Amino acid sequence: MTKRDNDEIDLTSLYQARKKQYKSPAALKRKVLKEAMGAKYSTRFFSGFQQVAIAAGTLLLISLVAIQYYDFNHSQPQLTYTLVEVHSIGEQENNQYAEISRKYDQHYQQFKQKQALLVSHHSKSAVLNQMEGGWELVTCDKELLKVSDELVNTLKEMDLIGDTLQAGDNVNIAFNRYGLIVGIHQSKLNKSC
Fold first, then answer.
1. Phi and psi dihedrals of 136, rounded to 5?
2. Which domain holds residue 149?
3. Which of 170, 180, 120, 119 is nearest to 148 (CA)?
4. In this structure, is residue 89 part of a structural domain?
Protein backbone atom coordinates (compact mmCIF):
# COMPACT_ATOMS: atom_id res chain seq x y z
CA MET A 1 0.00 0.00 0.00
CA THR A 2 1.10 3.46 -0.76
CA LYS A 3 1.16 6.39 1.51
CA ARG A 4 -1.82 7.94 -0.28
CA ASP A 5 -3.98 4.86 0.25
CA ASN A 6 -3.04 4.90 3.92
CA ASP A 7 -4.01 8.58 4.19
CA GLU A 8 -7.42 7.90 2.60
CA ILE A 9 -8.09 5.00 4.95
CA ASP A 10 -7.11 7.17 7.93
CA LEU A 11 -9.43 9.98 6.77
CA THR A 12 -12.32 7.60 6.23
CA SER A 13 -11.91 5.99 9.63
CA LEU A 14 -11.62 9.40 11.29
CA TYR A 15 -14.79 10.58 9.53
CA GLN A 16 -16.73 7.50 10.65
CA ALA A 17 -15.52 7.93 14.25
CA ARG A 18 -16.50 11.59 14.24
CA LYS A 19 -19.89 10.76 12.74
CA LYS A 20 -20.64 8.28 15.53
CA GLN A 21 -19.58 10.80 18.13
CA TYR A 22 -22.00 13.54 17.02
CA LYS A 23 -25.46 12.36 15.99
CA SER A 24 -27.57 14.71 13.90
CA PRO A 25 -31.07 15.56 15.14
CA ALA A 26 -34.00 13.69 13.54
CA ALA A 27 -35.55 16.94 12.26
CA LEU A 28 -32.40 17.66 10.26
CA LYS A 29 -32.49 14.17 8.76
CA ARG A 30 -36.13 14.61 7.71
CA LYS A 31 -35.41 18.01 6.21
CA VAL A 32 -32.47 16.68 4.15
CA LEU A 33 -34.52 13.70 2.95
CA LYS A 34 -37.43 15.97 2.01
CA GLU A 35 -35.17 18.27 -0.01
CA ALA A 36 -33.59 15.30 -1.74
CA MET A 37 -37.05 13.95 -2.68
CA GLY A 38 -38.16 17.41 -3.99
CA ALA A 39 -35.04 17.65 -6.11
CA LYS A 40 -35.81 14.20 -7.47
CA TYR A 41 -39.31 15.30 -8.61
CA SER A 42 -38.07 18.51 -10.28
CA THR A 43 -35.37 16.52 -12.04
CA ARG A 44 -38.01 14.09 -13.28
CA PHE A 45 -40.15 17.00 -14.53
CA PHE A 46 -37.30 18.57 -16.50
CA SER A 47 -36.24 15.17 -17.78
CA GLY A 48 -39.80 14.55 -19.03
CA PHE A 49 -39.91 18.02 -20.57
CA GLN A 50 -36.66 17.36 -22.43
CA GLN A 51 -38.03 14.10 -23.79
CA VAL A 52 -41.21 15.82 -25.04
CA ALA A 53 -39.13 18.58 -26.68
CA ILE A 54 -36.90 16.04 -28.43
CA ALA A 55 -39.95 14.08 -29.63
CA ALA A 56 -41.63 17.26 -30.96
CA GLY A 57 -38.44 18.33 -32.75
CA THR A 58 -38.05 14.91 -34.33
CA LEU A 59 -41.69 14.93 -35.47
CA LEU A 60 -41.26 18.41 -36.98
CA LEU A 61 -38.11 17.36 -38.83
CA ILE A 62 -39.79 14.24 -40.24
CA SER A 63 -42.83 16.26 -41.38
CA LEU A 64 -40.64 18.86 -43.14
CA VAL A 65 -38.72 16.14 -44.97
CA ALA A 66 -42.01 14.46 -45.95
CA ILE A 67 -43.46 17.74 -47.29
CA GLN A 68 -40.35 18.43 -49.38
CA TYR A 69 -40.39 14.90 -50.72
CA TYR A 70 -44.07 15.24 -51.67
CA ASP A 71 -43.50 18.63 -53.36
CA PHE A 72 -40.52 17.26 -55.27
CA ASN A 73 -42.47 14.24 -56.59
CA HIS A 74 -45.76 16.02 -57.30
CA SER A 75 -44.61 19.38 -58.63
CA GLN A 76 -45.53 20.57 -62.13
CA PRO A 77 -43.10 19.34 -64.76
CA GLN A 78 -40.78 21.89 -66.24
CA LEU A 79 -41.88 23.12 -69.66
CA THR A 80 -39.37 22.63 -72.41
CA TYR A 81 -39.45 24.56 -75.64
CA THR A 82 -38.25 23.30 -78.94
CA LEU A 83 -37.27 25.74 -81.65
CA VAL A 84 -37.89 24.40 -85.11
CA GLU A 85 -36.35 26.26 -88.01
CA VAL A 86 -37.06 25.66 -91.66
CA HIS A 87 -34.00 24.03 -93.14
CA SER A 88 -33.28 21.84 -96.10
CA ILE A 89 -30.63 19.93 -97.90
CA GLY A 90 -31.94 19.73 -101.46
CA GLU A 91 -32.72 22.41 -104.04
CA GLN A 92 -36.47 21.72 -104.05
CA GLU A 93 -36.76 22.26 -100.33
CA ASN A 94 -34.89 25.61 -100.63
CA ASN A 95 -37.54 26.76 -103.09
CA GLN A 96 -40.26 25.97 -100.54
CA TYR A 97 -38.48 27.99 -97.91
CA ALA A 98 -38.02 30.89 -100.33
CA GLU A 99 -41.76 30.78 -101.15
CA ILE A 100 -42.69 30.87 -97.45
CA SER A 101 -40.27 33.74 -96.85
CA ARG A 102 -41.65 35.70 -99.85
CA LYS A 103 -45.26 35.26 -98.66
CA TYR A 104 -44.30 36.36 -95.17
CA ASP A 105 -42.63 39.52 -96.52
CA GLN A 106 -45.65 40.27 -98.72
CA HIS A 107 -48.11 39.93 -95.83
CA TYR A 108 -45.88 42.01 -93.59
CA GLN A 109 -45.78 44.84 -96.15
CA GLN A 110 -49.58 44.75 -96.46
CA PHE A 111 -49.87 44.96 -92.69
CA LYS A 112 -47.54 47.98 -92.57
CA GLN A 113 -49.55 49.76 -95.30
CA LYS A 114 -52.83 49.17 -93.48
CA GLN A 115 -51.29 50.34 -90.25
CA ALA A 116 -50.05 53.55 -91.92
CA LEU A 117 -53.52 54.15 -93.38
CA LEU A 118 -55.05 53.72 -89.93
CA VAL A 119 -52.57 56.16 -88.39
CA SER A 120 -53.21 58.75 -91.13
CA HIS A 121 -56.88 58.95 -90.17
CA HIS A 122 -56.27 58.46 -86.49
CA SER A 123 -57.53 60.80 -83.79
CA LYS A 124 -57.85 60.55 -80.03
CA SER A 125 -59.94 62.29 -77.43
CA ALA A 126 -58.06 63.92 -74.57
CA VAL A 127 -58.24 66.50 -71.81
CA LEU A 128 -56.04 69.58 -72.14
CA ASN A 129 -53.82 70.75 -69.29
CA GLN A 130 -51.72 73.83 -70.04
CA MET A 131 -48.22 74.05 -68.68
CA GLU A 132 -45.46 76.66 -68.67
CA GLY A 133 -43.15 74.57 -70.86
CA GLY A 134 -45.88 73.36 -73.25
CA TRP A 135 -49.20 71.58 -73.15
CA GLU A 136 -50.05 68.33 -71.50
CA LEU A 137 -52.76 66.13 -73.03
CA VAL A 138 -54.17 63.14 -71.13
CA THR A 139 -55.94 60.73 -73.49
CA CYS A 140 -58.81 58.44 -72.61
CA ASP A 141 -56.33 55.54 -72.71
CA LYS A 142 -54.46 57.25 -69.83
CA GLU A 143 -51.59 58.18 -72.14
CA LEU A 144 -49.78 61.41 -71.36
CA LEU A 145 -48.75 63.51 -74.39
CA LYS A 146 -46.56 66.54 -73.84
CA VAL A 147 -46.63 69.17 -76.58
CA SER A 148 -43.86 71.78 -76.66
CA ASP A 149 -44.59 75.52 -76.92
CA GLU A 150 -42.78 75.53 -80.26
CA LEU A 151 -45.19 72.96 -81.74
CA VAL A 152 -48.18 74.79 -80.23
CA ASN A 153 -47.05 78.07 -81.82
CA THR A 154 -46.41 76.38 -85.19
CA LEU A 155 -49.86 74.75 -85.16
CA LYS A 156 -51.46 78.10 -84.20
CA GLU A 157 -49.73 79.82 -87.15
CA MET A 158 -51.10 77.10 -89.45
CA ASP A 159 -54.56 77.56 -87.84
CA LEU A 160 -54.60 73.92 -86.68
CA ILE A 161 -55.29 74.71 -83.02
CA GLY A 162 -58.45 76.33 -81.74
CA ASP A 163 -57.96 79.83 -80.31
CA THR A 164 -60.33 79.41 -77.38
CA LEU A 165 -58.80 76.31 -75.82
CA GLN A 166 -58.33 76.38 -72.06
CA ALA A 167 -57.08 73.98 -69.42
CA GLY A 168 -59.63 71.26 -68.70
CA ASP A 169 -61.23 71.35 -72.19
CA ASN A 170 -61.99 68.11 -74.02
CA VAL A 171 -60.09 68.06 -77.32
CA ASN A 172 -59.55 65.81 -80.33
CA ILE A 173 -55.94 65.21 -81.35
CA ALA A 174 -55.39 64.50 -85.07
CA PHE A 175 -52.35 62.46 -86.11
CA ASN A 176 -50.77 61.98 -89.54
CA ARG A 177 -49.76 58.60 -90.91
CA TYR A 178 -46.42 58.77 -89.09
CA GLY A 179 -48.10 59.34 -85.74
CA LEU A 180 -47.21 63.05 -85.54
CA ILE A 181 -49.72 65.56 -84.17
CA VAL A 182 -51.20 67.64 -87.01
CA GLY A 183 -54.06 69.34 -85.17
CA ILE A 184 -55.74 69.90 -81.82
CA HIS A 185 -59.38 71.00 -81.92
CA GLN A 186 -62.01 71.42 -79.28
CA SER A 187 -64.34 68.43 -79.07
CA LYS A 188 -67.81 69.36 -80.32
CA LEU A 189 -69.46 66.35 -78.68
CA ASN A 190 -68.09 67.14 -75.19
CA LYS A 191 -67.13 63.50 -74.97
CA SER A 192 -65.42 62.70 -71.68
CA CYS A 193 -63.36 59.66 -70.81
1. -125, 125
2. 118-186
3. 180
4. no
